[in-house]
Design brief:
Elements: E1 2-7, H1 12-23, E2 27-33, H2 45-48, E3 58-59, E4 69-72, H3 76-88, E5 92-95, H4 102-111, E6 116-119, H5 125-141, E7 146-153, H6 163-175, H7 180-183, E8 184-186, E9 200-206, E10 212-219, E11 224-231, H8 235-247, E12 254-256, H9 258-261
The structure holds NADPH dihydro-nicotinamide-adenine-dinucleotide phosphate and ligand LZUJQKHR.
Length: 265
């Protein structure tokens, strides 16, 4: 049995993770965490997730908790604080949080010398398949097309572009041997002028309760290819995260992502 701690337990992903964990074989929800001062502290994690009591009360800190893998979909600040705790206590992590800056990502890479971490901007099988399809599309279409990445998410999302959109850009840029720092264009406004072929454009929509849509558009002369993924619920992200938690059982340390977990590397 693998003991799972879920942090951000009252959040959109936290509640979905609690539900997925309660239904999973071989996994046990052993701890649920929330921000100190949150109204969820002391509530039963199962009730938060709309399942009825699971006998796991939401707590404000990791001290005194017992778990094998911490599953963290929170905020960059909270994730980095949890990373320090997991490093000190030699615990594994699955990190789904997006919006980390280069320094934050560097801290995760350094921590992974000591502990095993799966860190991925999107845990769904479908999106990870899309990353592979994008490699093929970019290789075949090359410099003959304009590349634009369009993503849409719910009105509460904190970061833009989404972590998934940025990873899609990185995948395409790597195949096309372009530097995203130089060629990434994030929205357009005013007299933006003719587009340079090397540009990789990003457009972000924030509206209503959209779970998460991503399209990469390869537009050439007379035809275009679109690779689209639409999440209909958050369960594919949660199922992927728990699949990653199981996969980590074999690992002592190292930094991995869902391409490793799914054998797509
Ligand atoms: N990799 C993937 O597959 C996916 C990644 N994500 C990413 O996951 C993250 C969370 O998304 P989502 O669930 O929609 O966001 P929510 O805001 O719904 O949930 C985040 C939760 O974390 C809580 N939190 C904040 N600080 C702490 C802390 N110090 N300790 C414990 N809990 C804390 C928040 O509390 P409070 O509200 O009080 O701040 C909130 O309840 C985002 O970065 C998002 O982009 C989302 C879906 C899929
Ligand atoms: O915040 C979200 O909701 C999501 N965030 C992830 C991202 O930034 O790519 C993944 C998914 O699209 C949902």
């Amino acid at each position: 049995m693998i003991n799972i701690a879920v942090t951000g337990a009252a959040g959109r992903m936290g509640r979905t993770l609690i539900e997925a964990c309660a239904r999973a074989e071989g996994l046990r929800l052993s701890a649920a965490l929330e921000r100190p001062g949150s109204a969820a502290i002391g509530k039963d994690a199962g009730e938060l997730a709309g399942l009825g009591k699971l006998g796991v009360a939401v707590r404000a800190g990791l001290d005194g908790t017992d778990f094998d893998v911490l599953v963290d979909f929170t905020s960059p600040e909270a994730t980095l604080a949890n990373l320090d705790y997991c490093c000190q206590h030699k615990k594994k992590m699955v990190i789904g949080t997006t919006g980390l800056d280069e320094a934050g990502k560097g801290r995760i890479a350094t921590a992974a010398r000591d502990i095993a971490i799966v860190f991925a901007p999107n845990m769904s099988v479908g999106v990870n398949l899309c990353f592979k399809l994008l490699e093929t599309a970019a290789r075949v279409l090359g410099d003959e097309v304009d590349v634009e990445i369009i993503e849409a998410h719910h009105r509460h999302k904190a970061d833009a572009p989404s972590g998934t959109a940025l990873r899609m850009g990185e995948v395409v840029a790597k195949v096309l041997q372009r530097d995203l720092k130089e060629h990434g264009v994030y929205g357009r406004h005013g007299i933006s002028g003719e587009r340079a072929r090397q540009t990789i454009g990003f457009s972000s929509i924030r509206a209503g309760d959209i779970v998460g849509d991503h399209t990469v558009l390869f537009a050439g002369g007379g035809e275009r290819v679109e690779i689209t993924h639409r999440a209909e619920s958050r369960m594919p992200f949660a199922s992927g995260a728990l699949r990653a938690a199981r996969w980590l059982a074999e690992k002592k340390n190292g930094l991995y992502d869902m391409q490793d977990v799914l054998g797509l590397r």
